[in-house]
From TrEMBL, chains A, B:
Top-rank lineage group of the source organism: Bacteria
InterPro entries: Pyridox_Oxase-rel (IPR024747), Split_barrel_FMN-bd (IPR012349)
Region feature (Disordered): 195-226
PANTHER family: 5-NITROIMIDAZOLE ANTIBIOTICS RESISTANCE PROTEIN, NIMA-FAMILY-RELATED PROTEIN-RELATED, FLAVIN-NUCLEOTIDE-BINDING PROTEIN
Lineage, highest ranks first: Bacteria, Bacillati, Actinomycetota, Actinomycetes, Pseudonocardiales
UniProt name for this protein: Nitroimidazol reductase NimA-like FMN-containing flavoprotein (Pyridoxamine 5'-phosphate oxidase superfamily)
Gene3D superfamilies assigned to the protein according to its UniProt record, in alphabetical order: Electron Transport, Fmn-binding Protein, Chain A
Amino acid sequence: MKILFHVTRQLSTTDRTTIRRGSARARTERSDLHATLDAGLICHLGLLIDGSPRVLPTGYGRSGDTLYVHGSTGARSLREAAEGVEVCVAVTHLDGIVYARSLFHHSVNFRSAMIHGRARDVTDTDEKLRALRVITEQLAPGSWEHARQPNKRELAATAVIAVDLAEAAVKIRTGGPNDDDEDVEEAKSWAGVLPLRPHWGTPEPSADLPAGFEVPSHVGEREQPA
Amino acid sequence: MKILFHVTRQLSTTDRTTIRRGSARARTERSDLHATLDAGLICHLGLLIDGSPRVLPTGYGRSGDTLYVHGSTGARSLREAAEGVEVCVAVTHLDGIVYARSLFHHSVNFRSAMIHGRARDVTDTDEKLRALRVITEQLAPGSWEHARQPNKRELAATAVIAVDLAEAAVKIRTGGPNDDDEDVEEAKSWAGVLPLRPHWGTPEPSADLPAGFEVPSHVGEREQPA
């Protein structure tokens, strides 16, 4: 099985010379990085705390070639990250299960972005507001205009870190299994892909909303995830 | 906004004393840990390589209170992890977006498991086969019986690490927003939850399957993700 995603730290050109149908491949286009990030909802932030690795799921957003990650100032991980420590941010889309004739060639289709860098604490109020806006657009597009924007106290209670998209890797796997020829010829097992897609369900209004408060279109007609 | 998941390293009892409706809460039941892990498809494995944090999406499985994570022996991260280094494994389900009256109280509903421990290299052939079986059951249930099982060469090319579920934290957030009273009274913005669920699509058979090869039930009738 090759269900570990092989993520290279540097964008590799040799990888391109060995692409087989359906293989995971490194993408070297910045547009692939942006598209993979923009299609996500949460990231996994990796950093060291007291010498131990920590992985935290959290919200993020992108502005140009800057990634913003946010959290509470009460969360120790974000306070640590704000001190300029090294971080690794992963955004992963699981697009399907690849069923092969052999278990060894079972795999998954995915889009994966991996960012390495040092976190910068966002302290400038204007940048912090811009960052919170792109983080909001990522998780809840339309809410920045619709909901009450953060006041001074709330802003102070929110930590935002920035990571440059300077060192990043993107890997995308699509297509069917790469079975061994003998297994294909034996034809004993089914082979193919079972696609996986996230879907928004029906909005569930809060019980304490005034009667007749309609679901706004940015929620009720939210575009399905890519 | 409280879209950072507050994951405590130790299961906390004081957390229980401050639960509000809809708040993220630490779960102290081992059954919650098992259920959160068993419902997942991939994990994010965090570890240190050359002093830098690395986060890798990969397949996993659970057997009792042991978590198995697998990959290629060619992948440096797994070779490093096999040397007994500290790892952090995160399994995250994003269950919905929580729209609040204020951006500050925007949140997400989620189930999150976080495992801390030292990786143990699985070298015993019997344990490795058992581990690969549970990893297969997690990602592609039914394939262990249906597809060709790994031969010696393939087994040797597959690395498996084990992590005890001794130090683990589970957090689950459900329900609607925790808005400030003034915002609820003003009633200017919609509030509620937009649920998110992954769905299996229609199986896509490999082009090189013999004509008439039917989709087996473990693929075509696979249970939708929880």
